[in-house]
Amino acid sequence: QELEKLxxxxxxxxxxxxxxxxxxxVQRLIPALWKKHSPQLVVHxxxxxxxxxxxxxxxxxxxxxxxxxxxxFCPGSQCCVEGGPECIDSVIDMDAVCARxxxxxxxxxxxxxxxxxxYLCDFTYYTSLYQSRGRSAFVHVPPLGKPYxxxxxxRALQAIIEEMxxxxxxxxxxxxxxxEH
Length: 181
What we know:
Elements: H1 2-6, H2 23-37, E1 42-47, E2 54-57, E3 59-61, E4 87-89, H3 94-103, E5 110-113, H4 120-132, E6 136-141, H5 150-180
Parallel strand pairs: 1-6, 2-5
Antiparallel strand pairs: 2-6, 3-4
Helix pairs in contact: 2-4, 3-5
Subcellular location: Cytoplasm
Keywords: Cytoplasm, Hydrolase, Protease, Thiol protease
Catalytic activity: Release of an N-terminal pyroglutamyl group from a polypeptide, the second amino acid generally not being Pro
């Protein structure tokens, strides 16, 4: 919500959605949003009661979903996409994004993780990565006030997403360059 108030740079069309903590809704909604917007990038943000930093997730996992969602439902297969790869990495270089955002000197600590937790955050991330062939990102944030304010988190997310877009555009320039030769 704070990011929606702040916005992103002028050439970025920002769409903000609140995704319910429900496996079946995620399986319907994420592909529908990709189809509707055909975005360059989707960045999911989830609150983690265990997080003390703003955490960039490198990958999403397909199996191991045993926790019941807000509708008391759990996928019988305990996976996101039957037959899908075990793990999908984001095409975004999270180490580079972390380093660049940390260098900005914001009053927020940014870290990296390779395990988004095998609950709805990880499930959403994997579903989006699968749908987008890796053009997704996931950021875990601590609960408000523990230790950051909404304003601090909003500014951090703004910086993170702008750096992600920068890294993505730069890597696409390199890919296009290699195809031309």
